């Protein structure tokens, strides 16, 4: 919510978020991006979540640096994701994101441990703080670029803008 609304919520429940669209500017173009925030929970019926997975280009695995349990849980979740996607031969791109990097004194997951996990996924690793807005813009930029490349193979070249004699844009 920090990136989309520039708001920090002390308590945020992604289960109530049905999906959010936003437009992102990159390479002189505007991209419509849909975010489906989905928290996997043990014991829940996973069928709706499976449906989300079947239409994704990028999965961001998110955990808290202050919770070893959340880090271990994303590993279990990743196994489930790969199991679901194996049946349809879909291989999305992944990003690893550690939240609450402003809580360094409460850190339970080392940067090295997370980096090694990201390396095993052949992906990038971000530490962010929604509270202090650290690395939020960089993360979303990476999300948009990765999702686009995953779907279309490469990022589009920058559009050269031309202005005619009257100051009107020609693209």
Automatic annotation (TrEMBL):
One GO biological process term: signal transduction
GO molecular function: GTP binding; GTPase activity
SMART domains cross-referenced by the UniProt entry: RAB, RAS
UniProtKB keywords: GTP-binding, Nucleotide-binding
InterPro entries cross-referenced by the UniProt entry: P-loop_NTPase, Small_GTPase, Small_GTPase_Ras-type
GO terms under cellular component: membrane
Top-rank lineage group of the source organism: Eukaryota
Regions annotated as coiled coil: none
Protein name as it appears in the record: Uncharacterized protein
């Amino acid at each position: 919510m920090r990136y989309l609304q520039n708001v920090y919520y002390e308590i945020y429940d992604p289960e109530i978020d049905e999906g959010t669209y936003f437009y992102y500017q990159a390479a002189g173009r505007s991209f419509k991006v849909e975010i489906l925030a989905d928290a996997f929970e043990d014991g829940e019926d996973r069928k709706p979540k499976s449906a989300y997975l079947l239409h994704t280009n990028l999965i961001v695995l998110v955990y808290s640096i202050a919770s070893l349990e959340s880090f271990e849980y994303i590993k279990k979740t990743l196994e489930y994701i790969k199991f679901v996607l194996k049946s349809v031969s879909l291989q999305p791109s992944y990003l690893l994101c550690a939240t609450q990097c402003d809580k360094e004194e409460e850190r339970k997951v080392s940067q090295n441990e997370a980096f090694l996990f990201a390396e095993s996924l052949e992906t990038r690793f971000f530490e962010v703080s929604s509270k202090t807005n650290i690395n939020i813009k960089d993360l979303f930029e990476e999300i948009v670029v990765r999702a686009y490349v995953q779907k279309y193979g490469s990022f589009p070249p920058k559009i050269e803008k031309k202005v005619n004699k009257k100051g009107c844009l020609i693209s």
